[in-house]
Design brief:
The protein is of the alpha/beta class. It is 43% helix and 16% strand. The chain has ten helices and twelve strands. The two termini are 36 Å apart.
């Protein structure tokens, strides 16, 4: 089935992968970056959605500067909270489905068992609070056609991210100290884009109910384990990556110590969750390497 898709935040890493995936599938897709569509402008959002009449809107636009959000929470809220609300209102008026990309930061990050989709939220920083506001706005305005997809530890060839940083530093440093006390799920943006397309299709056919889904890789590791795996793929000695703890890095906003998400809801709608993080990284590596050597 061919549908019309609208993607916001079009210059971002995830949006780029999503537009590539949609083009490969022969879907009609239009992407808007902030210069063309500012999602904090409700009139512009309503007008743009009304003009293009998309079947599915995927909101990849976000304030992602976690530390800056602590001092500029009002500004971050306009993007992460008000923006999704404006999109939800426009989708309610047009009948489009809305997929809102969110984050593991909506959780406290101090648990020891994967967070289920319906686990209680308790953000500990401004970024998490503003992203949670966006989730709540979408689900309230679109109880039957609004979808929240939480992700974490995203990487890919199309932007700055941890995997590419490690690859770059492997060439210039003898050793690299990486934290061993934060657990999460490294997620290739292309894998998440694939699940967003599948979810959007299922939303249109009525086989996936609205609500929250977790778009992260299977398994779990630490940033230290992630970095060592990147070194192995580079053919570098992984022992050059040394363990350290979070208290050695001064950060304005607290980082979740535990960012492992559960994926049970995907299977209930007939969609396989994202593969194990190692498998995803191995598949992504040629693209990451090519991007670094351009």
């Amino acid at each position: 089935m061919t549908a019309t898709w609208m993607v916001t935040g079009a210059r971002g890493m995830l949006a780029q992968e999503l537009l590539i995936r949609l083009a490969r599938d022969g879907q009609r897709a239009v992407g808007f970056d902030r210069a063309v569509l500012d999602i904090t402008d409700p009139e512009a959002v309503l007008r743009t959605v009304g003009e293009h009449r998309p079947d599915v809107v995927v909101n990849c636009a976000a304030w992602t500067a976690v530390d800056e959000a602590e001092a500029r929470e009002t500004e971050a809220l306009r993007v992460n909270g008000d923006g999704p609300r404006h999109l939800a209102d426009a989708c309610a008026a047009s009948g489009a489905r809305l997929l809102q990309v969110s984050t593991d930061y909506v959780f406290a990050g101090n648990d020891s068992f994967p967070y289920a989709e319906d686990a209680p939220t308790a953000p500990r920083c401004a970024y998490g609070r503003t992203k949670l506001a966006g989730e709540q706005a979408v689900l309230a305005a679109l109880p039957d056609t609004g979808y929240v997809v939480r992700t974490a530890w995203l990487y890919g060839a199309g932007g700055a991210n941890f995997a590419r940083t490690v690859m770059r530093l492997a060439d210039v440093r003898d050793t690299l100290h990486v934290v061993v006390d934060q657990l999460g799920q490294p997620t290739w943006a292309a894998d998440l884009a694939d699940r967003l397309v599948r979810l959007g299709r299922a939303a249109l056919t009525g086989t996936a109910p609205a609500g929250v889904y977790h778009g992260t890789s299977g398994g779990e590791t630490t940033w230290f384990g992630f970095a060592r795996e990147v070194f192995r793929l580079l053919g570098a000695d992984p022992r050059r990556v040394r363990p350290t703890t979070s208290d050695t890095f001064a950060r304005v906003a607290p980082r979740p110590a535990y960012s492992v998400l559960g994926h049970a809801r995907w299977r209930t709608v007939g969609i396989e969750p994202i593969r194990d993080w190692r498998e995803g990284l191995h598949a992504a590596f040629p693209e990451l390497l090519a991007a670094e050597r351009r």
